[in-house]
Amino acid sequence: MQSFNHQSFGLGLGLIGSLLIGTSSVAANPAIVASSPPPQVFTTPTYDREPLPKALNTAQAWQTVAHNAMRDKDYHNSLVAYNKAIDLAFPEQRALLLEERGWVYYLSGYFNQASQDLQRAASLYLDQEDRQSYRNVIQMRRFIDTQARQLQPTPRQGELSQLDTASILP
């Protein structure tokens, strides 16, 4: 039984979305609305808790372990379980597992690994001629890459933080 669901993201992104697209400043300035790019729309993995399988000898069994760990926000063990699931997976299962593991990497703050997994998943989806999943994963990857760029300090910000730290230290 596949327990992978999707949760739609788009204009209803909640707090994260309002931070990403700056809804408070957008609402105050209509000129920004006209010049802003459309928000990225994609679906992300969601995880249903399932009973653990009796034997952990299949990709699906390890995927269940990964889902359960993810539900508990135990990202480390979720990633370990996804690694095992990917090792045991049939070729046609790998794209979905890479997509799910990529999202866990993103939630863990490992943006480069997330982007790499999503790129590999996109390539596999193309090979499988699954255009819808391909487009979704590409949107997820763009979102993550944008997040990573926004969180990287500019060289000037890096200098300022070093100066602030240096002035505090004896």
TrEMBL record:
What is the name listed in the Swiss-Prot or TrEMBL entry for this protein? Tetratricopeptide repeat protein
Q: Which organism is it from?
A: Lyngbya confervoides BDU141951
**Keyword Signal set for record:** yes
InterPro entries to which the protein is assigned, alphabetical: TPR-like_helical_dom_sf
Q: Where is this region: Disordered?
A: 151-170
Show which residues constitute the signal peptide. 1-27
Name the source's superkingdom.
Bacteria
Which keywords does this chain's UniProt record carry?
Signal
